[in-house]
Amino acid sequence: MPKTRSFSPAQIGNRGVWFAAVILTAWLLLLSFLLTYHSPGTTPSGLSLSWKDPLVYVFVLLQMHLYTGVFITAHDAIHGVVAPNNKRLNNAIGTLATALFAFNNYKKLSAGHHLHHKHAATEHDPDYHRGNPNIVLWFVDFARSYVSIWQIVAMAVTYNILKLWLPMENLIVFWMVPAFLSTFQLFYFGTYLPHRGEHHNPPHNARSQALNHTWAFVSCYFFGYHEEHHTQPYLPWWKLAEAREGNVQ
């Protein structure tokens, strides 16, 4: 990997806050629209969504991508690079982002993620598989490391409250399904592909996807440039493309 010039987290100033604000606001605005969305031709007394409506699938993918951005924002806060000059603001944004992502716990997520960096792709890594690299079993282990019974209870309570005013199918299709798909997206591009198989760069034990910035952003906000993230965890997600090229300054 090309050597990079020195970079200080403080150099990003408030840009991390603005990136976070755009992602969180876009997620909230789209979700607010989708929770009351009705497919053309549906009636008030029937289902609000039609599986023949192509926009339903487009909206699910868009919301999934924004959910991933919400989590990546929380991830950057864990590394202190959303607001590097204001720790309280940084952690507040991280706490909000993790709560919006299916009521995750910021402190628990932070502790687990720092262990992941310290023991990447080893038996002490909470994100690594438990001896069986099968993608399904690995994903189950990955999810179990962070999902708690209280999250499930919070989701259930919120769902039952919201469905008093909002269509049940909209809550499931646009709130729950994108969150699950995003979780798998984060696992696949941010854990499975970078850390599977043998590695020859300890202690990082990570690899990066091929250089393609468009696909890297669409797939996981440049998080597929994973070796760069592990060697330079002080870089926010929007700097990883430059790091992949060896141009960070």
Automatic annotation (TrEMBL):
This is Fatty acid desaturase. GO terms for biological process: lipid metabolic process. Residues 55-145, 151-244 form the Fatty acid desaturase domain. Keywords: Membrane, Transmembrane, Transmembrane helix. The chain crosses the membrane at residues 12-35, 55-78, 147-166, 172-193.
